[in-house]
Design goal:
Blueprint lengths: L4 H39 L20 H5 L3
Length: about 70
């Protein structure tokens, strides 16, 4: 059975799109997100955040009245 030219083109385009998206997102990660994260880390404590990213929380009460007023 002959495969049409259009079907072969769609198969090629699907593979090309996957390769291009991987390349574009890798470049985006290394040029935008990684530098921003590295710049944010030393200054995280100065702007109200925590250097490790975690906040201290009090444990929630484990009784029925507290469970009824969740919100």
């Amino acid at each position: 059975m002959k495969v049409s030219l259009w079907a072969r083109w769609k198969a090629f385009a699907r593979v090309a799109a996957r390769v291009q998206s991987n390349i574009i997102f890798t470049i985006l990660y290394f040029l935008v997100f990684l530098p921003l994260a590295l710049l944010r880390r030393p200054f995280a404590g100065q702007f109200g955040g925590h250097a490790d990213g975690w906040l201290e929380r009090q444990p929630a009460p484990r009784d029925l009245p507290a469970a009824r007023r969740q919100f």
